Amino acid sequence: MGQTVCRVELNRGKRIFRDIDLDAMIKALQGTTLEGSTTHGKQMCFFFGGGIHLGIHLGMTGKLRAEPADRFSKFKHDHLVLHMSGDTVLVFSDPRMFGRVLFSAEKEPPEWWTDLPAEVLSKDFSFERMDAFLKRRARTAIKPVLLMQEMFPGIGNWMADEILFQSRIQPQRRAGDLKPAERKRLYAALQFVSKEALRIVAPDWGDFPDDWLFNHRWKDGGVCPQTGCTLKREPIGGRTTCWSPEWQK
DNA sequence: CTATTTGTTTATCC
DNA sequence: AGGATAAACAAATA
Question: What is the largest CA-CA distance in chain A?
Fold first, then answer.
């Protein structure tokens, strides 16, 4: 913080820059001072002087790193590089480019930052809110419902399966058919999996407990760590879904 | 070579 | 209109 942007280096035409006027962004960033940053799920926002907002959505394979200038070398997928004063380099890399860069230099904070849905682990994410959402999506299978970012920001495919596994609910059940007790379990598992995933992965890409579905789900023939039975794998709502038929009802 | 996978957005249908 | 569903995206990996 407090450092100034000396030079902006980027790979033009990459999908992560969709809808951005790159020349305007570069011009605005050059010479401005980084005043702070916050995170929101897989998104981050950097605040620069003059009301400039630079958003980074990590998507699936997006990574941010900061390193000393003398150790920096640009890799193939380093699409956005901010050379800062103080010999630090901020790098956003994203091989698959499901991530995205957002930018605004308007007076008001941009809606892409102010209108984000409540984070799963925030206190605004109440059981009642989730419950109301499940009612509205009553006819859709619960698995794809968990992937809806407007309610569950940052929940992706494996997390959705893990949450259903831990709450013992079959992924093809319709959201509106879940009993109150099941919805309670779903809420608890959602919080637990999100919290644990962050706790375990964040520091150093740790391993998940072996009684999670995570370690067993990736290929056909996996064995359920709870029952010892073979896991099922098939697409639900267009995404590969893995579950334990004996364990999840 | 092709098929599959991943998180999220976007388009299209109902 | 708003909800349900399918397709799109890029690139590594099998």
Answer: 60
- The whole domain housing A219 covers 127-243
- Residues A161 and A84 occupy one common structural domain: no
A238 touches strand C (CB under 7 A): yes
pTM metric for this prediction: 0.91
- pLDDT of A204 strictly over 70: no
Which of the four pLDDT bands, split at 50, 70 and 90, describes residue A125? very high
Whose CB is within 7 A of strand B? A 18, 41-42, 57-60, 96, 98, 100, 147-149, 153-159, 218, 233, 235, 239-240
Contact flag, residue A107 CB and nucleic strand C, below 7 A: no
Could you tell me the distance in Å between the CA of residue A91 and the C1' of nucleotide B9? Answer: 24
Q: Flag whether A248 is in a domain.
A: no
CA distances from A222 to A10, A217, A225, A240 (A): 42, 6, 9, 14
Strand C: which positions are within 7 A of a protein CB?
A: 2-12
